[in-house]
Automatic annotation (TrEMBL):
Complex formation: Component of the proteasome complex.
Signal sequence interval, chain numbering: none
GO cellular component: cytosol; nucleus; proteasome core complex, beta-subunit complex
One GO term of the biological process aspect: proteasome-mediated ubiquitin-dependent protein catabolic process
Originating organism: Nelumbo nucifera (Sacred lotus)
Name of the molecule in the record: Proteasome subunit beta
InterPro entries xrefs: Ntn_hydrolases_N, Proteasome_beta_3, Proteasome_bsu_CS, Proteasome_sua/b, Proteasome_suB-type
CDD domains, sorted: proteasome_beta_type_3
Length: 204
């Protein structure tokens, strides 16, 4: 078993019309043994920027603390929040710094940039970015997530439709992966509000 699969995870970010959604499962496991069913994988950087961290849970928490520290330094120096593109470059640089002993994490970054244009990207454990205009996925359930998102996604969805699409994609995908699941956590971010919802999924 790969170290990336040790705790199990499923993450998606999806773009809508001037909004985005980011969703994760809630299972924390040690291989096939479930430890917790309310694990948080999506972290808020600021009101319009979120990061999801799949992979090894301990590395994800360490990396998140480093990112919060670097973002606070940026806020103090620049007196403004970081743009999603800038933040993606920061995450990439931090991961590449440690390329010979990497954080076992695959981040998914989602944010609203200038003119409330949604930005999403993912990267591997050493910071190689993969940008997308529709959706990005990560985690042990990523293969089935790709299939579900390919069949359900359509451009320019309104927030409610986007929520429904990302939720159905997540729930149907984690059913096909025994290392992730046990419900879901969804954030839908628009220029004016953040909608946070918890999904109830199969508990087996």
């Amino acid at each position: 078993m790969s170290i990336f699969e040790y705790n199990g995870s499923a993450l998606i970010a999806m773009v809508g019309k001037n909004c985005f959604a980011i969703a994760s499962d809630r299972r924390l496991g040690v291989q096939l043994q479930t430890i917790a069913t309310d694990f948080q994988r999506i972290y808020k950087i600021h009101d319009k920027l979120y990061i999801g961290l799949s992979g090894l849970a301990t590395d994800a928490q360490t990396l998140y603390q480093r990112l919060v520290f670097r973002h606070k330094l940026y806020q103090l120096r620049e007196e403004r929040d970081m743009k999603p593109e800038t933040f993606a470059s920061l995450v990439s640089a931090i991961l590449y710094e440690k390329r010979f002993g990497p954080y076992f994490c695959q981040p998914v970054i989602a944010g609203l940039g200038d003119d409330d244009k949604p930005f999403i990207c993912t990267m591997d454990s050493i910071g190689a970015k993969e940008l997308a205009k529709d959706f990005v996925v990560a985690g042990t359930a990523s293969e089935s997530l790709y299939g579900a998102c390919e069949s359900m996604y359509k451009p320019d969805m309104e927030p409610e439709e986007l929520f429904e699409t990302i939720s159905q994609a997540l729930l149907s995908s984690v059913d096909r992966d025994c290392l992730s699941g046990w419900g879901g956590h969804v954030f839908v971010v628009t220029p004016t509000e953040v909608i946070e919802r918890t999904l109830k999924g199969r508990m087996d």
